[in-house]
Amino acid sequence: AGRTDAGVHALGQVANFPTNSSIPVANIRRGLQSFLPEDIVIVSAREVSRSFHATYSAVCKRYRYVIHDGDVCPPFLKPYVHRSQHPLDINLMRAAAHFLLGTHDFRCFEKHFPNKSTSVRTIMDVSVQRISCWLPWTSLHSWSPIYGARHEQPEMTLIVFEVMADGFLYNMVRAIVGTLMEIGRGKQSPECLGEVIRSLDRSQAGMTAMPNGLYLVSVDYPEELCGNL
Q1: Which residue blocks in the chain are alpha helix, DSSP H?
Q2: Which helix (H) or strand (E) holds 110?
Q3: Domain boundaries of the chain, sorted by first residue
């Protein structure tokens, strides 16, 4: 359903192919899985309309970017989060993210311009929140039920940025995150994000954030083709 560069993850990647095979779909899924590397898992498989295309039939996509800004980043997390060396103010980041909503020309966040088509996209939803690290990496207590009551809420050192749009430009989410991180550090005001968008100039935006914090979360399609996958 979309390109995932080296280091980028996908929770809800979608692919399709035509076939005249009479093999049951469940068996096709198991057969394909046997040829894939261990870090790629086919979660489900289903038959869809022949007019369905994983890329061109999509009506919106949701991406997630995860940042760790605590003092100590667990080594297990490092391939899956972007490590910020500075604490970030998510209230500033939230205020800035508001300027992303709506229909805009987002060429300021595009790695290559001009592209072959339009740089106009519509962002329908955006959020910035803090969460705790996953318990196995943060709890000092046994997982045994007898110790269940002793589990304490760990420090909330993960920042999760999520964005849903009708489409994304190349490196768009990572460029947005790089800009939000500068704002979170206090280097720019939240209002500057609106100015960056209006500038149509990539040099006015922040750095392109590292790929390892980025996740393709989900892709939505018209119900008549297959429903939401």
Answers
A1: 25-33, 90-97, 172-184, 192-199
A2: none
A3: 60-220
Rounded to 5°, the CA angle 182-187-190 comes to 70
107-118 burial, b at 16+ Cβ within 10 Å, e below that, comes to bbbbeeeeeeee
Locate 215 and state its tokens.
């996740």
**Residues involved in catalysis:** 5
The residue among 149, 128, 137 whose CA lies nearest residue 66 is 128
What is the second-level CATH architecture of the domain 60-220? 2-Layer Sandwich (3.30)
DSSP 154: P
Residues ≥6 apart with Cβ < 8 Å to 222:
57, 59
Burial tier of 179 (Cβ tally within 10 Å: 0-12, 13-18, 19+) = buried
pTM of structure: 0.85
**Alpha carbon of residue 97 to chain centroid:** 15
Cα 67 from Cα 45, distance rounded (Å): 32
SS3 26: helix
Which stretches of the chain are assigned E, i.e. beta strand?
9-10, 60-68, 82-83, 102-105, 120-131, 158-165, 214-220
SS (H, E, C) 128-146: EEEECCCHHHCCCCCCCHH
pLDDT digits over 8-48, tens only?
898 888 988 998 888 998 898 999 999 999 889 998 888 88
Give the pLDDT confidence of 125-179 residue by residue, as tens digits: 999 999 876 544 444 444 444 444 444 445 678 899 999 999 999 999 999 999 9
